[in-house]
Each structure stands twice: as structure tokens, then as C-alpha cells.
Task: structure prediction
Amino acid sequence: MISVIIPTQNEEQLIGHSIRHLQDHGVHQIIVADGQSNDQTTRIACSHGVTVLSSPPGRRAQMNHGAAVATGDILLFLHADTILPPGFCEQIRQTLARPGVAAGAFRLRVNSPQCLFRLIEHMVYWRCRLKQMPYGDQALFLRSDVFHRIGCYRQLPIMEDFDLVCRLRDVGRIQLTHTAAVTSARRWLKHGILQTIITNQLHLLAYRCGINPNTIAAWRNA
Result:
């Protein structure tokens, strides 16, 4: 059984569509872990009959809160602006059934016709193939017992996905599915595609060099 956990903050434009898509595919449980939205996100989610939690803002806290009440034996962490491919439930089950697989994620597809995004998708594909490093917009999924055994998401203000995946690689292989999740281009377009790529890589480099994550988060929010 698959429990889907969606961390939200002011996602009233997207959350209804995201929930309906999941319900159409018959997942066991949908949990919206809201980080104190001040729009209609929680009202819309409640109107669709899903579990809605109130959490301190921050994806780490929100996703851990959702995982704590999830009843499925598989956890799927999904951004509100990401839509999964047809048949995703069976793909998840088949992926996690493979020997040695600790977790999985979908290939990345950005919902934009710009050619630069095709390059980004290609780079992400090879990063995942060679380094087993999917990020949150690829809809990471894993068994609930594995998630809790490795200590859930750590209390980090940034790089929480990277940290979790690094620990998962010590447990087993992280496998990509053969189809892609389609995610919004908004986070790239907000500050510019190239600037977003460079900023993300600088944050990653700083984290790997041992700079305090709180300092990196302060740079991001400056």
C-alpha cells in the first residue's frame, strides 16, 4: 500500500489537481502536510477527503510529520507541482521489489518547451544513473520501515533530500523508473534557469565542503 505525502505551503492553484490525479490511480492514502499556508490550500485539500496535517513550515518537518501518520508500507514524497505518469503505483512496487533496491525515483521531465530544460533532464538522468542521486522533484519513494530505520529526514534547513539519499545509498541501490514525473518549471523561471542551476550547485558544493547548512540556507534566503 502506498501513502503519498505532499508538503505544501500556499499551493491553492495546484493542490486540487494533484490530489485528483492521485485519487484516480487508487493510492492507499494521501497526506497533505501543510506548512502554515495563508491561502486556501488546506480547505481545498480537506474538500477532497484526504488527510490534512498542520506542521511548522519547512519540507523536512512537514514530510516527517506526514510519514509519522502514514499507514502504507511504501512512502512516496511528492511535490504539489509534480504529476506522476500513468501506472505509477505498479512501477513503484516493481522497482522496490528488485533485489538490493532501497529506494526509487522517477525520471525528470520539466513542463516547458524550452530546449535548455531538455539538457537539464539529460544531466539529471545521468546524475541518477552514475551517482544514484535523485532529488525531491523526482518523487522519491521507499519502504516505510527503511525510512524510519535510517532516521527519517534530518533536521536540516536545506539539502534534506541530498542528505537522505546519501544515507539511503548505504542501505542499497536507488533505482530510476523507466518513465518520468512531470514537474513545473516555476522554480527555474522564478530566478532564471542558469542562475538557479549555478546557485544549486554552489549550495551543494558548500554543503559537501562542510559549511553549516544554516549558513547555506541564509545565503539562499538573502
Remarks:
- Residues 186 and 192 are 10 Å apart (CA to CA).
- The chain has one domain: 2-190.
